[in-house]
Design brief:
Radius of gyration: 20 Å
Strand content: 35-45%
Largest sheet: 5 strands, antiparallel
Number of strands: 25
Number of domains: 1
Shape: globular
Order of helices and strands: HEEEEEEEEEEEEEEEEEEEEEEEEEH
Length: about 400
């Protein structure tokens, strides 16, 4: 836990340290900004940490709550990690997500090959559905784009199934049914429409679905309009109509006649004039080595857990790298990432976006809570420093 003084010194170092900038070229959209006020490299400092008793496998932040998952227990906690509800007796749980509209918490239990969902307010059981076609699940997300294609459905539930090399889609209705409705992506080709090894997912502020591709020959984050494409009839036995989603560009390189791969991904990809979809394992700024999970704040910024580089990288909604933080000492093997925005007034702009960032470090069986310089300044002006 860092004191108010250490955070102040951190900010001073940020403002006086030279920062490497990466020159923009055709197809290369990553540029690290020079520090300017509070928006510089390493603007987050550790604020608190939680030590799990049993092995933590996933973590989500939603509406001022932190949900933690072990193989046999789902827990709801406040922002200081105090427990306010639990669900026990899960069977080899591996992934979860929260639907903020319905306030349902969905959990995948690998031992039962089923999804169960609980009411977030009181953690009461609502329903479950066995999905025998699922191989495994490492991540889940809720997204409603195109849900009107299924009569009576409320939203879609997406599951990253790396065992089957698919991102599966299920329509969820208020009768507690999960009905298969094609897939978001398969691994049968190159380009942006394919996900080779599906990882973490999140819905952004515009309703688009972000997904990590952890294949070492890709190592990037893609963005989809997840609306099922009724014209998509690409072969994927036994489903002749996979209804895949449509990839969306993060940026537009006006110098390139043919959109380069780098326009469609966060991370390294082939540049202008190169038609190959080539990624790589990299520790360079704006690139990844195993991007396991992704989250967004209400301003549209994208937070990526860059696991093997032991860091969190934060991008604008347009794909530019804003900043990064973490180290092999602080965040080794970081996986899940969650973001909390803090309202500081009544105006539309009176929000400290990404005030706190929570990250799961499974090797240490810990969740670390980081505070932004901006929010630290706000707290230091009005509140005493956190306890030592």
């Amino acid at each position: 836990m860092r004191s108010r003084m250490s955070l102040l010194w951190l900010m001073i170092l940020i403002l006086v340290s030279p920062v490497l900038t990466v020159l923009n070229g055709c197809g290369n959209k990553i540029a690290i900004p020079e520090p300017d006020g509070l928006f510089g490299i390493s603007q987050y400092g550790e604020w608190a940490r939680f030590q799990g008793e049993d092995q933590l496998v996933d973590m989500k932040v939603s509406v001022g709550r932190v949900f933690t998952l072990t193989g046999d227990m789902l827990s709801k906690r406040d922002l200081t990690f105090g427990v306010s509800g639990t669900v026990e007796g899960l069977v080899q749980a591996t992934a979860m997500c929260v639907d903020e509209e319905s306030d349902f918490v969905f959990v995948w239990e690998d031992g039962l090959k089923q999804v169960s969902w609980y009411q977030g307010s009181d953690m009461s059981f609502v329903g479950s559905s066995v999905l025998p076609e699922m191989g495994s699940a490492v991540a889940m997300a809720v997204n409603g784009a195109g849900i009107d294609q299924v009569a009576g459905a409320l939203s879609y539930l997406y599951l990253s199934d790396p065992s089957s090399l698919l991102v599966r889609r299920y329509a969820f209705d208020d009768f507690g049914n999960l009905m298969p409705h094609g897939i978001l992506a398969n691994s049968d080709g190159e380009a942006a429409r394919f996900v080779h090894l599906a990882g973490g997912m999140a819905t952004d502020i515009d309703g688009r679905l972000l997904i990590c591709d952890t294949d070492t020959s890709r190592n990037w984050v893609l963005r989809f309009d997840s609306t099922p494409d009724v014209t998509d009839v690409a072969s994927n036995p036994p489903d002749d109509d996979p209804l895949r989603g449509t990839p969306l560009r993060f940026s537009v390189d006006a110098a390139c006649i043919v959109p380069p791969a780098s326009d469609f991904v966060l991370g390294y990809a082939a540049e202008c004039g190169n038609t190959d979809w080539v990624g790589r394992t990299s520790s360079e700024p704006g690139e990844f080595n195993n991007p396991t999970h992704v989250a967004v704040d209400a301003s549209g910024r994208i937070y990526v857990a860059d696991s093997n580089n032991a860091r969190i990288q934060i991008f604008s909604s347009g794909g530019d790298l804003d900043l990064q933080f973490g180290s092999t000492d602080d965040t080794p093997g970081v996986t899940s990432v969650g973001v909390y925005d803090h309202r500081i007034g009544s105006g539309a702009d009176d929000v400290n976006y990404g005030a706190f960032v929570f990250v799961l470090v499974p090797g240490e069986n810990q969740i670390l809570k980081f505070i932004s310089s901006e929010h630290s300044n706000f707290l230091n002006e009005d509140l005493p420093p956190p306890p030592q």
